[in-house]
Design goal:
About 35% of the residues lie in helices and about 15% in strands. The chain is an alpha/beta fold. The protein has two domains: about 150 residues, Rossmann fold, CATH 3.40.50; about 80 residues, Adenine-specific Methyltransferase, Domain 2 (Adenine-specific Methyltransferase, domain 2). Strand 4, helix 9 and strand 5 form a beta-alpha-beta unit. The longest helix is centred in the C-terminal third of the chain and has 16 residues. The protein starts with 16 loop residues before the first helix and ends with a strand. The structure holds S-adenosylmethionine.
Length: about 270
C-alpha cells in the first residue's frame, strides 16, 4: 500500500504534490531533506531511498520516531483510545513530554484525528488547547497506513532542528524541499512583530538566504509559500517562480477552504 501522511497538518501539501513532484530532480544516491516536515506529504509521495526529515516541533519529531520505530505499540495504543469528549479532555491535559516516543505518537495522532480541524495548537505552557472536533466517526487508528508510513520511514533520519541546520547537512546533488509557515496574505501585524508561530518576515528572509546558499553549493532547492506580495518581492532575484492553485482544507480559522493561489520557487 502507498503511504499517505498519517497526520493532517496545517499547510499540508497533499493538493500541491503533483506540481511539486514535477520539480524534484533525479536523486540517485543523493539525499532528500525536508526541514519543515509537518505532515510530510512530499516525502510520502516520493519515498526517497535516503532522507533527512526535520522540524522544530519536538512532539511532532517524536511522533515520526514513534511511527518509524514502534509502530506495533502505536497501533495498540490507538486501538485502545475511544472517541469520547471526556477522554479527549484527559489526553489534552497529559504530561506527554515525559512519556516514550510510542505514547507521544499515539497522543499526537489521537488528538489530530479527533480535535477540531486537525489543528495543533498549544498555550504558553505547551498544553494542547484545540477543542474536540465535530467528527461522527473518525478513523483514529488507520493501521494499514501507519504500517505503510512506518515502512517508508525505515532508514530515514528524523531530527528536531531549526531549518537553518540543513546548511550543514545538504551536499552538492542533494535536494531540499522547504515548506515554511506561510507569509499571511493579509495581516499588517505580521510586519510589526507579531507572529503566532515565531516565523516573521526576518525569518522568511533568512530562509531565502539559506536557499540561496544551498543553490550556490549545487544543492537543488524547492520552496513553497503563499502568494503574498512580500514573498514575490524576496524571491524576485535568483529564483524561478510558478503560481499554483492549491486546495486547502486545514486552516486556523476554518476559512481557508477552497482553492487559493500559492507560489513555488526553485
Ligand atoms: C507549513 S508546515 C509544513 C507542511 C508540510 N510540508 C506538509 O505537507 O504537511 C510548517 C512546519 O514548520 C515547522 N516549523 C516552524 N518553524 C520552524 C523552524 N524555525 N525550523 C524548523 N521547522 C519549523 C512547524 O512545526 C510546521 O510543522
Amino acid at each position: 500500500m502507498e503511504p499517505r501522511p498519517f497526520l493532517k497538518w496545517v499547510g499540508g501539501k497533499r493538493q500541491l504534490v503533483e506540481t511539486l513532484l514535477d520539480h524534484v530532480p533525479g536523486l540517485g544516491k543523493h539525499t532528500y531533506h525536508e526541514p519543515f516536515v509537518g505532515g510530510g506529504a512530499l516525502f510520502f509521495a516520493l519515498r526517497p531511498a535516503k532522507a533527512v526529515l526535520s522540524d522544530d516541533n519536538a512532539r511532532l519529531v517524536r511522533t515520526y520516531v514513534g511511527v518509524r520505530d514502534h509502530v506495533d505499540a502505536v497501533v495498540k495504543l490507538l486501538r485502545s483510545y475511544p472517541h469520547d469528549p471526556a477522554f479527549f479532555q484527559k489526553m489534552r491535559e497529559r504530561d506527554i513530554d515525559s512519556a516514550d516516543d510510542a505514547h507521544v505518537a499515539a497522543w499526537m495522532i489521537y488528538l489530530n484525528k479527533t480535535g477540531y480541524n486537525g489543528l495543533y495548537r498549544v498555550n504558553s505552557r505547551n498544553v494542547f488547547n484545540v477543542p474536540f472536533g465535530r467528527y461522527a466517526n473518525p478513523t483514529i487508528c488507520d493501521e494499514p497506513n501507519l504500517r505503510a508510513c512506518s515502512a517508508a520511514l525505515q532508514g530515514v533520519e528524523i531530527l528536531r532542528d531549526d531549518f537553518t541546520s540543513v546548511l550543514e547537512r545538504a551536499h552538492k546533488g542533494d535536494f531540499v524541499y522547504f515548506d515554511p509557515p506561510y507569509v499571511p496574505l493579509s495581516a499588517t501585524s505580521y510586519f510589526t512583530g507579531y507572529t503566532a508561530d515565531g516565523f516573521g518576515p526576518e525569518r522568511q528572509v533568512h530562509l531565502r538566504d539559506v536557499a540561496l546558499k544551498l543553490k550556490g553549493k549545487g544543492v537543488h532547492v524547492l520552496l513553497s509559500n503563499s502568494s503574498a506580495g512580500f514573498v514575490r518581492e524576496i524571491y524576485s532575484q535568483g529564483f524561478e517562480l510558478e503560481e499554483v492553485h492549491a486546495a486547502r482544507n486545514v486552516n486556523c480559522r476554518g476559512d481557508g477552504r477552497g482553492r487559493i493561489l500559492e507560489l513555488v520557487m526553485w
